Amino acid sequence: MADTGTLECITEHERILQEIESTDTACVGPTLRSIYDDQPNAHKRFMEKLDARIRNHDREIEKMCNFHHQGFVDAITELLKVRTDAEKLMGQVTDTNRRLQEAGRDVTAQTQEVICCRIQQRNMATTVEKLQLCIPVLEMYSKLKEQLESKRYYAALKTMEQLEKVYIPRVGQYRFCQIMAENLPRLREEIKEISMSDLKDFLESIRKHSDKVGEAAMRQAQLHRNFNSVVVKQASSGHFAKPVYSLNGRTHTHNGLKMEDDAGEDDEVDDEVLTVQDLVDFSPVYRCLHIYTVLGDRETFENYYRKQRKKQARLVLQPQANMHETVEGYRRYFNQIVGFFVVEDHILHATYGLVTRAFTDELWNMALSKIIAVLRTHSSYCEDPDLVLELKNLIVIFADTLQDYGFPVNRLFDLLFEVRDQYNETLLKKWALVFREIFELDNYSPIPVETEEEYRLVVSRFPFHDAEIEKQDFPKKLPMSQSVPQIYTQVKEFIYASLKFSESLHRSSTEIDDMLRKSTNLLLTRTLSCCLQNLIKKPHIGLTELVQIIINTTHLEQACRYLEEFITNITNVSPETVHTTRLYGLSTFKDARHAAEGEIYTKLNQKIDEFIQLADYEWGMAESDGRASGYLMDLINFLRSTFQVFTHLPNNNNDHASMSGKVAQTACMSACKHLSTSLMQMLLDSELKQVSMGAIQQFNLDVIQCELFASSEPVPGFQGDTLQLAFIDLRQLLDLFMVWDWSTYLADYGQPTSKYLRVNPATALALLEKMKDSSKKNNIFSQFRKNDRDKQKLIETVVKQLRSLVNGMSS
């Protein structure tokens, strides 16, 4: 059985070896795995079998190599011999090829030259033959082009006729002749296009020169305007009769004679007239119009010309973005527009139908709307009143120039009223800066006058008259500060500046007077009023400065009637005229004065609040210090020194005295009321939880000092104890707690004759609860003493009664 198993194992190993030798290496894994899955130690016997098989193959390989070794050596030897011969052969072939290429290069080049020459000879012969037939046609066509370029259109038309009937039929088989024949019917259109190109050049030329044409026309209008103003002045003085002259500047006659104001200016006008006409050559327009008329297409030419001029009008009306920055930008803009319409006016009168009056009117209406819109927009950007004034002058000259050519310009003069409003706005902004600077540099103290000359100088700048001050000896002081005459002078300067805009507007004196008064009212009620209000609100303006501001506004208010007389003298319009506008300076200065008074009260109260914040009461103290608090004494001293400012005001003017007395009384009453309210709020502060009787006594000492201050008449003019009534609420409240007179308070509550009529139950309750909490904290052992227990019960009883009163009031 063992032999049988061994034999089977050997057979299996043979099969596996054959399978390994005959199969791919990727499939060897399962085969090798089967060796280990068989009998134990089978792999050892397989390895022995494998080694034997390897040795067997090695022997067969060695036999085969020994058998073929000699043949291999012989083949290698033969191959080495052949390689040497092959290298020699390769060199010979390469050398032969090189010599062959060099020898054939010259032959190839010569052959190509011969071929090219023969082709050229054949082509030249053919070309000469054909050109002999085509040259006459080309010459005629070239002649046609020359005629077109030289603008000999009639000769060009004759040449086209010869080409069509004689020359083209001879060589009609050629393509270029066919194209030429096809193009000839359209050459007549080309003649129109050539003439149209001349028109385009003309349009381009007038576009470039329109500003120069406009400049010349506006300069001429300016000269005529100046001339007319001189003639009017001379006529008004009796040197001439009423002059007769045309508005377009073309004729100036007086009694049938030409008037010459200045030979140089007259020559300049003549030169400008010639220059305007010589700047533009109108012959292309005439020639093109004639060609289109002959060809029967005049309507096309007219439509094209008008369309292009409309486009140019739109371009001319487009301003530069920075036009509003300089007057030159506006001048260039106006020059271009004037030049455009001067050219159109010439075309209208010289071409008999190319443009019509209806067409020019349409262009002008379109341009006028655009001009007005542009001027509205750009004038709104102007911040300099001088620039706005120059713009106004340009608009006037612009309108006069175009009016001379028959264009309606009423809307431009209407626009000037809008520009006038813009001019006034720029003036107001400029004068706002002037007023601010005046206020900043003012020292807010009366003007010192050392000599008669100084006094006269001030009076010449400001209408100040006071008999008592005039009687005083020098040196003396005028009640107002230095800003008053400066403000008055600047208002007059503003009126002069506003008047400049009204010149040459062809308006009546009444209208000019109305414009001046309205602009002056704006200066007073808006600009100056705003500057005064801002000045009053500035933190660095103290009480002394505010008092001086009140005096200043009083003098400015009194000077308003002199401003009205000043305007009347300028315009010669009586103030009694029905529609004369009045100046509103009185209300402006009254409002400023009221604002200054209110600011005095506000600043005084703020200062009181600053002192109150320094209060440092010891609310739990057992007894008072026996003297008033330091902060309160400082506050009273401050109030005394402050109200002395009012008593130091000049008393030589009854108005000043009454004004200062009223302000001082109101300020003093306001300060006392505010102080009383602040002290009451301090005592009833919700954050204050406990108050002792000693603190009440100390607080009472401070209130007594306040009452003494009120009774000392810090400001004269109060009747009786009017000022002391400001502290009546505090006095009655403190008396109630100091005397501890609750029975009287509760019994008389609600009676008009009550001793504690001004004590509110809620106020008394709030303070009593603070004292009750203080008593509980400070008298922990007081419950063992009968008097303290009785007092505590009394407090609780009073608290209950006060609560019932408070609840009754709320219900």
Largest sheet: spatial strand order: 1-2-3
Low-confidence stretches: 236-272, 650-654, 779-784
Biggest β-sheet: count, sense, barrel? 3 strands, antiparallel
Instruction: Tell me the radius of gyration.
Output: 59 Å
Termini separation comes to 131 Å
Report the helical percentage: over 70%
GO biological process, one term: vesicle tethering involved in exocytosis
Family: Belongs to the SEC15 family.
Protein name: Exocyst complex component
Domain Exocyst complex subunit EXOC6/Sec15 C-terminal: 412-770
Describe the structure.
The chain is mainly α and 811 residues long. Among the domains are: 214-231 and 276-407, 5 helical Cullin repeat like (Up-down Bundle); 632-810, Dsl1p vesicle tethering complex, Tip20p subunit, domain D (Methane Monooxygenase Hydroxylase, Chain G, domain 1, Up-down Bundle). The chain is built from 26 helices and five strands. The strands form two sheets. A three-stranded antiparallel beta sheet has the order 1-2-3, with no helix packed on it. A two-stranded antiparallel sheet has the order 4-5. The longest helix is centred in the N-terminal third of the chain and has 108 residues, at 42-149. The model is unreliable at 236-272, 650-654 and 779-784 (pLDDT under 50). Residues 49-218 form the Exocyst complex component EXOC6/Sec15 N-terminal domain.
